[in-house]
Amino acid sequence: MGTTVEDVVIVGGGIAGLATAVALKRAGVEALVLERSEGLRATGAALTLFPNAWYALDALGVSHKLASYAPALKTYVTDLDTGEVQEMSYTRANGDPVGPRSVHRKALLEALADELPIHSIRFSSKISAIETQQHEDSSIAIVHMENGTVIKAKVLIGCDGGHSVVSRWLGLGELVPSGRSSVRGLAVYPQGHGLDHNVQQYVGLGRRAGLVPLTNKDIYWFFNCISPAKGTSLAEDPEDIQREVLENYAKDLPHLYSDVVQHSDLSTLTWAPLMFRYPWHVVFGDLSKQNITVAGDAMHPMTPDLGQGGCQALEDAVILGRHIGTSFVQNGRVLVPKAMSEVLGKYVEERRWRVALVIMGSYFSGWVQQARSGWGMKFLRDVIFYKFLYHKMVKYVNHDCGKLDF
């Protein structure tokens, strides 16, 4: 099949991969994105983007394409045991909205992909092996494809998700189960759902559910619960998932929630365990070696409880793009292989502690909200977490990762 040579090869055409390619393009660096699927991976239905993600999208020059999605101004949290409702506001003191905006995952992926030359994304590309080769005083990454093609790259970036081939090559720790599972789906109301643009959450013993309006017709919903006993398989057929939620898990939730589940687009329903990487593996692990590094879930898989998986991937893309782009510009618009080890090392050190802390915050957020029994856990959730810690966490994650000025 032959051998080709590329400046930058990105493994994975999800949020992190496409956003990194866009960031590099703004600096004039061409990247080849290898995606194993036959097209853009739109699984997941929707995701929540906090202000830190919008800062990154601004830097990438694509935020205007998603401007039709309105921010949520409030989240209402209903205690299923007592009926008590807590309200959390996202507005600044001057009244400006700073809340998260939930968007269709497909819309975000298309907004990023549209910024790239059509030839820069190679679908149905499956990797069989990775190795490195020393060339004079620098390292070249060699990617072997299942179809026999060999690609040599000055820089190799793994954006291939939690079960990343690249992160495994780097020796990063495998994903571990959080002990919780999540059902997620998208409900469609062709005539409109009539709800305001606020988030509704329901919390109870070992479970947490939520409704997040995306548009006037679409609602993203989720149901998190303690994972079934070891050896018990999760339903995979969409109709079985829907039936299981309605009959066994959500039967005592408000009628509104059941109605949303019944309006689900079955093709969007998934039920999967929530996995993450131990934060100490991120702090002490090799996030880069020579000219190879990782971004997005390949670096920092986390539970979705702070809505930061996609947000941190977008931050990664801007910061990695800035480090590589700066080196490219300073070296006469040439990617110098021997400089890449130091360049990627600087990117890793800028990201390492921040994403490790977000992994910990996300895990704690999920653990405390799906409170076990006892007044102590309820006090921790309702008073300490909702009234104090959650706002501190949101303030921490709402970080401006900077611009891409080359």
Automatic annotation (TrEMBL):
Q: Which InterPro entries match?
A: FAD-bd, FAD/NAD-bd_sf, MOase
Keyword Oxidoreductase in annotation? yes
- FAD-binding domain boundaries: 7-359
What's one Pfam family the UniProt record gives for this protein?
FAD_binding_3
List the GO molecular function terms: FAD binding; monooxygenase activity
- The organism's place on the tree of life at top rank: Eukaryota
Give the signal sequence positions.
none
Q: Does the keyword Membrane apply?
A: no
Keyword list (alphabetical) reads:
Monooxygenase, Oxidoreductase
The record's annotation in PANTHER family points to:
FAD/NAD(P)-BINDING OXIDOREDUCTASE FAMILY PROTEIN (PTHR45934), OS04G0423100 PROTEIN (PTHR45934:SF1)
Membership in a protein family: Belongs to the 3-hydroxybenzoate 6-hydroxylase family.
Name used for this protein in its record: FAD-binding domain-containing protein
Record the organism.
Rubus argutus (Southern blackberry)
Give the taxonomic lineage as stored in the record.
Answer: Eukaryota, Viridiplantae, Streptophyta, Embryophyta, Tracheophyta
